[in-house]
Amino acid sequence: MAGRGVLAIDHGDGVVSAIEPVDAAVSAGTVVSAGQPVGVVASGGHCADACTHFGVRIDGDYVSPFLFLGGVPLAVLLPLR
After folding, report:
1. DSSP for residue 58
2. What is the C-alpha separation between 3 and 73, in angstroms, rounded?
3. Spatial distance between the Cα atoms of 20 and 51, rounded to a whole number of angstroms
């Protein structure tokens, strides 16, 4: 994708996660297990090295990845000082 390696994982039930930029350690169609290394962070894109983007889609629609990482943090508005 735009000169960056992207790794997408189909979790079933319409859930697909993707990370980029990444140098994949697995080939397309490889079945992976929880905890199995699938690649290493690569360079490319608009941010410095060691920057990774993580996205999740359900039935093609993007959702907050926090739904799969322990929940969505509540927004807290703080007063101006």
Report:
1. E
2. 32
3. 9
